[in-house]
Design brief:
Blueprint: H1 2-25, H2 31-34, H3 37-49, E1 54-61, E2 64-72, E3 81-82, H4 87-100, H5 130-134, H6 148-156, H7 163-169, H8 194-208, H9 212-224, E4 245-248, E5 253-256, E6 272-273, H10 275-286, E7 290-291, E8 294-295, H11 299-306, E9 319-324, E10 327-338, E11 341-348, E12 351-357, H12 365-376, H13 378-381, H14 387-413
Antiparallel strand pairs: 1-2, 1-12, 3-6, 4-5, 7-8, 9-10, 10-11, 11-12
Helix pairs in contact: 1-14, 4-8, 4-9
């Protein structure tokens, strides 16, 4: 009888040993679970309906890229897209490095680092600080109507950076107008401002005595292994540079968007990059400034950069409280849609995504980004699997149970 009980017990334990890893493994997402055939069908239909010819994305899970994939005519994830305003988070990171080193102060008057003085004509006695520029509170009137010539002049080479800053914002500048400034006091309101970030580009150059593209390459791109992030379309071979399009609703055709002439590399929107490179940058921000053992900012500086300025939804060169679906606490930075491209780079908790696509005419990139991250959020909700630990403990518990039974049987024989 005792021998039979032992045989039954042994069989039971063996079964537990076999099934426990199986149960545990069922609680781990694999990419095909989330991004299978139905997802790819959705993406392809989405691209067709919105006239997108190339698209790439990655999903970030904690400290690594969980999944990445490209679609369309140029599907490789190492192909470069123009980032538009997503470039601002890289420029912001460069400025925060100088702050961290004590080379600039966030409350310093930005005129301290310029060869001339710029003032809001409506509030000439109020200083504009580095913090104001980073958080879009500078009161520079950054709209296409006010600054149409700014963008045109940069694109066609009529004006170059940094002289264009003087020409538009200094009272003696060629294109100066009081209307180039908002009629509210700096620091009291928030308005998206490309030119303010371009000014920070000039400040980085003046403080470091280094061309801006050289500075960010040496202090951000190379340390993070971002080998395909550059400032000019001319730096890429044609097959690795994605062509941008703007949909013409009248002729119902896709028109090629010319690559912007990022003359002297202004940081408000002058980068080209890839899903692979941007994933490394975002992972560094998700992990207190560190990626793959390399730190570009300290945890304290990262926290400061990511902290909302009052209720503005802005950090320092960073955006917070961005909404996708039912979740309202994403952070990061987007770009466009404009001039042939859209870029979305955001994360929440330990899950994020990078999305690049080549349509500048209302591709509803935010809708697609939401679809990607809603699926990715299953990583946070449906697969936490607390029972995993319990199943792995079962063999250990069972071993001690058998050991106790055997001891009792031996005592009976004695």
């Amino acid at each position: 009888m005792n021998k039979k009980k032992i045989q039954i017990g042994t069989a039971f334990i063996s079964m537990i040993l076999i099934i426990s890893p199986v149960y545990a493994n069922e609680c781990i997402w694999v990419p095909e679970d989330l991004y299978g055939n139905s997802f790819e069908t959705y993406i392809n239909n989405y691209m067709t309906e919105r006239h997108i010819t190339s698209l790439a994305f990655s999903v970030l899970n904690g400290t690594e890229v969980f999944y990445s994939k490209g679609f369309g005519v140029q599907p490789e994830t190492d192909n470069a897209y123009h980032l538009n305003s997503a470039a601002k988070m890289i420029t912001g990171t460069a400025v925060m490095q100088l702050y961290e080193q004590g080379l600039i102060g966030l409350d310093d008057d930005f005129n301290d680092y310029l060869p001339y003085e710029l003032k809001n004509p409506y509030y000439p006695s109020t200083k504009i600080t580095i913090k104001h520029l980073l958080s879009y509170q500078s009161s520079i009137f950054d709209t296409f109507s006010a600054f149409e010539n700014y963008w045109t002049s940069l694109a066609n080479g009529t004006c170059t950076f940094p002289s264009i800053i003087y020409e538009f914002l200094h009272e003696n500048g060629t294109y100066y107008s009081e209307d180039n400034w908002e009629n509210w006091e700096p620091g009291t309101n928030t308005e998206h401002c490309d030119i303010g970030i371009d000014i920070l580009t000039l400040i980085v150059e003046n403080v470091t005595s280094t061309p801006f593209d050289t500075y960010v390459t040496e202090n951000i791109f190379i340390p993070l292994g971002m080998t395909n992030t550059r400032f000019s379309a001319d730096d890429y071979s044609p097959e690795k540079l994605v062509i941008g399009y703007d949909w013409n609703s009248v002729s119902r055709t896709n028109e090629i968007a010319p690559y912007l002439n990022n003359s002297n590399n202004p940081g408000g929107g002058g980068y080209f990059s890839t899903v692979e490179d941007l994933s490394k940058f975002m992972l560094a921000h998700m992990n207190q400034g560190e990626y793959n053992g390399t730190s570009i900012l300290t945890p304290t500086t990262i926290e400061l950069m990511h902290t909302e300025i009052e209720t503005s939804k802005r950090g320092l060169g960073w955006t917070v409280r961005v909404s996708f679906g039912v979740n309202h606490d994403y952070q990061g930075h987007g770009g466009g849609p404009w001039n042939g491209f859209y870029s979305g780079n955001y994360y929440r908790s330990t899950v994020g995504a990078v999305l690049l696509l080549n349509q500048g005419s209302n591709p509803e990139g935010g809708t697609l980004f939401e679809y990607i991250v809603v699926i990715a959020n299953k990583l946070l909700t449906e697969k936490t699997c607390p029972e995993t630990t319990s199943f792995y403990l079962l063999p250990i518990i069972s071993f001690f149970a058998v050991f106790t039974i055997l001891r009792k049987l031996r005592k009976r024989k004695v």
